[in-house]
Design goal:
- The structure is a single chain.
- The protein is α/β, with parallel strands linked by helices.
- The protein folds into 2 domains: about 40-245, 3-Layer(aba) Sandwich (Rossmann fold); about 255-305, no CATH class.
- The protein has 14 helices and 8 strands.
- The chain has helices spanning about 5-10, 10-25, 30-35, 55-70, 90, 115-130, 145-150, 170-175, 175-180, 195-205, 230-245, 250-280, 280-290, 295-305; strands at about 45-50, 75-80, 95-100, 100-110, 135-140, 155-160, 185, 215-220.
- The protein has an 8-stranded mixed sheet, with helices on both faces.
- A hairpin with a 3-residue loop joins strand 3 and strand 4 (about 100-110).
- It starts with a helix and ends in a 5-residue tail after the last helix.
- Bound molecules: guanosine-5'-triphosphate and magnesium ion (MG).
- Magnesium ion (MG) binds next to helix 4.
């Protein structure tokens, strides 16, 4: 039996193994993804992002419980662009039973290997969860940089979480997080200043371009569970709105080109490197770039042209 087929039949251990292969970018992962790809693309993917400690995991936990009670099959992925270590050891493949006996599958992905690794692993991990029957996937990612803006590109709806006192989050807003948010949550609303932060956020959002979807700003107390239903409702509304409105667009169209470009780039690079190695030119070019005799763009052009230039 193949891992892909096992996953489609709901085998959790097969899913866990496949996720590890995808995370480590093993060649076997390509085959598994090929087997399941036709069964993916139907889940709602909800991204939850925000600075460290704002309460994302607490919120994800509450939302998980809520969506389970609605009869959803929930999968949770925590993506940490800053960590080279798999959270697998921390979070494990935590699986638990809740609501109507649904199974939640939780897994964290770390930025193993080279830059851009997560950009490849994240959509594939989502696809594996979809193949395993999850119809709602919560994707938590920490930080305030380009990497999680990229990760959130795989979500249908992005929830940006802040806490009272926006001053601390200026960095996040610089990184373009205001643009990617579809729903804004001021969590820890039990703390002073929540109302002011909500006003400030609405003010900042009103300065942006008018869009078909105006992101709501909601208050929450994730710890006690207040505001969770409203957040879940806003997420589903946004998803509906995106589906009805071609201007908003769905992630599938955005993603399709990205997937193709990525796959093509991987293939072309692998092919070019293999050819250069076979021709005995790779090592010397690497050396030339290392010694600053050639710049990498020029070196790549030289390979691409297939000619020796001195
Ligand atoms: N006062 C208050 N504390 C909260 C609330 N929600 C979460 N917390 C607390 O905030 C702390 C951080 O919560 P997490 O859910 O781990 O935050 P996070 O954003 O996932 O953190 P990282 O993943 O480390 O970035 C924990 O001690 C929570 O108990 C809330 O509504 N009010
Ligand atoms: Mg967390």
């Amino acid at each position: 039996m193949s891992l892909g087929k096992d996953i489609l039949q709901g085998d959790r251990r097969a899913l866990a193994r496949a996720l590890t292969l995808v995370e480590n970018q093993m060649p076997e992962a390509d085959e598994i993804v090929r087997e399941v790809f036709g069964h993916t693309g139907r889940a709602i993917v909800v991204g939850i992002t925000g600075a460290p400690g704002v309460g994302k995991s607490t919120l994800v936990d509450r939302l998980t419980g809520h969506f389970l009670s609605l009869g959803r099959q929930v999968g949770v992925l925590a993506v940490d662009p800053s960590s080279p270590f798999s959270g697998g050891a921390l979070l494990g493949d935590r699986v638990r039973m809740e609501g109507r006996g649904s199974v939640v599958f939780m897994r964290s992905l770390a930025a193993r290997g080279h830059l851009g690794g997560l950009a490849r692993a994240t959509p594939r991990a989502i696809q594996l969860l979809e193949a395993a029957g999850k119809d709602l996937i919560l994707l938590e990612t920490v930080g305030a940089g380009q990497s999680e803006v990229d990760v959130m590109g795989y979500a249908d709806t992005t929830v940006v979480v802040v806490v009272p006192g926006l001053g601390d989050d200026v960095q996040a807003f610089k990184a373009g997080i205001l643009e990617i948010g579809d729903v804004f949550v001021v969590n820890k609303a039990d703390r002073p200043g929540a109302d002011q932060t909500m006003r400030e956020l609405r003010q900042m959002l009103s300065l942006g371009p008018r869009k078909a979807w105006q992101p709501p700003v909601l208050a929450a107390k994730a710890q006690s569970g207040e505001g969770i239903e409203e957040i879940a409702a806003a997420v589903l509304q946004h998803k509906d709105s995106a589906e009805r409105n071609p201007e908003v667009g769905t992630r599938h169209v955005r993603e399709a080109e990205r997937f193709l470009r990525q796959a093509l780039a991987d293939q072309l690079v692998a092919h070019a490197v293999a050819r250069a190695k076979a021709a005995g030119r790779w090592e010397s070019l690497v050396e030339d770039v290392a010694r600053r005799r050639k710049d990498p763009v020029w070196a790549a052009k030289e390979l691409e042209g297939g000619e020796e230039r001195e």
